[in-house]
Fold O-fucosyltransferase family protein.
Amino acid sequence: MKVEEKPAVENREEEQLKLNEMGGCAGGGDGSKGDKSSLTVLSQAKMILWMTRGVTTLLLWICVLQLLTVGAYKNNGYLMVSCNGGLNQMRGAICDMVAVARYLNVTLIVPELDKSSFWADPSDFEDIFDVDHFIRSLRDEVRILKELPPRLKRRVELGNFRSLAPISWSDISYYHNQILPLIRRYKVVHLNRTDARLANNGLPLEIQKLRCRVNFSGLKFTPQIEELGEKVVKILRKKGPFLVLHLRYEMDMLAFSGCTQGCNSEEVEELTRMRYAYTWWKEKEINSDFKRKEGLCPLTPEETALVLRALRIDRDIQIYIAAGEIYGGERRMTSLAAEFPNLVRKETILDPLELGFFQNHSSQMAALDYLVSLESDIFVPTYDGNMARVVEGHRRYLGFKKTIRLDRKVLIDLIDRYHEGSLNWEEFSNRVQEVHADRMGRPMQRVVISDRPKEEEYFYANPYECLDS
């Protein structure tokens, strides 16, 4: 019986079907390659789909967590702040008010700076500090806005808010018990004097550390101020080490303190008139000699020259004068210049055109001095005013840079005895060095006087709670 042969085409089709059924394992033809390629593409597509779903899920969870965080923040109202005083007095106040706003869960409006003080500086916050950095760097701590929302701004314009000066050296509980109820009632509260309104001691550690974060990270000067300050430091560094002398012998300081050592009768009269002209300077009749002996006066340029020499400061070191106009001008600087001939100021280092933008803006000029003071090899203030104390604290934070804190009460006694002849130069110099051996900005715990908070060591001069972080 003859078996009928199938056509060749049909035979090939059957063979292909068998190969397909076997998964293509018996051969390595074009069909097998195509299937493998298809499987690879399918696998890659599944992987991309899986990754896309994973990333999308992650992003959705992040959004949910952010919404939950925002929802958890309870905004109790808005806090407006008007700072008073000079640059560093306002700086401390800003740090305090950020801490208060965070503790009370209120929105802080960018603080308003003092324009009515002796210096009459018209600068706004953003003219001195980098306002965007201020808001951005603290956004995880406290909500800060440049201005009130329109609805609340209209309320303030209509007078529907509360304005008051908080009590000085208050514990944080004062703000919780006295200020927070006012914020909840009026929605907007304006604190119109904010200097030294938060206690130095006895505050929660997180409040102290927040004050430091604001001071050392949040309050950055504008790029223009930072760049010019860096330029001054570079110019000084090219010539070697330098000492910054915060010579607080300016007209306003002398009038305010009533210290007239070395002044002639006309100058004494001028300073007295100024003291009476400012009604908020409460002390009018002042015994200059008594205050000087108590160490309550800034050292004169002549006294300063004597002390620096006794401390064996190198005669050839550059001394940068961080101050405004010295009262009495060049006449009062003669002794200091004779002992230390390398006296410089920002006005002698920089081109007048570079300083032109800052002229008549005392806080911006003070900001330049602040930056140079931070970078100096030695910082010597002749009076423990706000700049002296805040710079001292900042230098501690930067690694305990050498800051000579002069003991003026002891120094005045030693200076007078030297002039009277009861101490020779060697005895005088040795005693000055002994007195200041432990007053060089080294690590130390802050002095606490619980019943006299104004006499305590200032928090911003020695923020020791923050120095281990």
